[in-house]
TrEMBL record:
Gene Ontology MF annotations: 2 iron, 2 sulfur cluster binding; metal ion binding; oxidoreductase activity, acting on the aldehyde or oxo group of donors
Keyword Endoplasmic reticulum: no
Amino acid composition bias (Basic and acidic residues), ranges on this chain: 1-22
UniProt name for this protein: Xanthine dehydrogenase YagT iron-sulfur-binding subunit
Entry GO terms, CC: periplasmic space
Domain of life, source organism: Bacteria
Phylogenetic placement of the source organism: Bacteria, Pseudomonadati, Acidobacteriota, Terriglobia, Terriglobales
């Protein structure tokens, strides 16, 4: 019985081999060589796009490290509160992070980090700037002033003293930005009324209830100067 079965299978194999290719089962038409050839082509097609993209993309230009500086950083000198600071910075560092993290000046606060709350306000050449929206490398020739630069305990700026006198703060987190904007308002063409002051300070947003006290402090200093 077994010998007869083997003979039948051999006859069927011989008949299949004699059929035209299009009439043979799919697996029977794919040789090991052709299968590996197709597999290799598919793998090459899958990997070719990233390899081609890498070949076409311009090579990153990395500045050589100088004096132990990290690759990709750039040297810059910033003048903050009348003092020069030589730094080696990643060009993506914001002025806010540079002040707080590199120069250890935490008086400038990070609030929304999107230029909407004004907590990070500093002066650049006498004008108020949201430091979270400005890169440090943009200011090599500028005069930068932070809350630490306008007054110190025992020698406060008149605006700092007025904020204390009128209790122009609650939690105090927004206070440094409010004071920096208020000091800048003294040099800006702002009208005399409280409404004018509120409009001039609209870029400094806080959710507390100290706005009336802040306006009173600003108006007091404006009237005395």
């Amino acid at each position: 019985m077994i010998e007869k079965t083997l003979e039948l299978e051999k006859e069927q194999a011989t008949e299949e081999a004699g059929k035209p290719e299009e009439n043979q089962p799919f697996l029977g038409r794919v040789s090991r060589r052709s299968f590996l050839s197709h597999l290799g082509a598919a793998g090459l097609a899958a990997t070719a796009p990233p390899l081609m993209a890498a070949a076409q993309a311009p090579a990153a230009v990395l500045e050589p490290a100088v004096d132990g500086a990290a690759a990709g950083t750039v040297p810059i000198t910033l003048r903050v509160n009348g003092k020069e600071h030589r730094l080696q910075l990643d060009p993506r560092v914001t002025l806010l992070d540079c002040l707080r993290e590199n120069l250890n000046m935490p008086g400038t606060k990070k609030g929304c980090d999107h230029g909407q709350c004004g907590a990070c306000t500093v002066h650049v050449n006498g004008r108020r700037v949201n430091s979270c929206l400005s890169l440090a490398v943009m200011h090599p020739q500028d005069e930068i002033t932070t809350i630490e630069g306008i007054g110190q305990p025992g020698h406060l700026h008149p605006m700092q003293a007025a904020f204390i006198e009128h209790d122009g703060y609650q939690c105090g987190y927004c206070t440094s930005g409010q004071i920096m904007s208020a000091v800048a308002v003294l040099k800006e063409p702002v009208g005399p009324t409280d409404a004018d002051v509120k409009h001039a300070m609209y870029g400094n947003i806080c959710r507390c209830g100290a706005y009336s006290n802040i306006v009173a402090a600003v108006q007091q200093v404006r009237q005395r100067t």
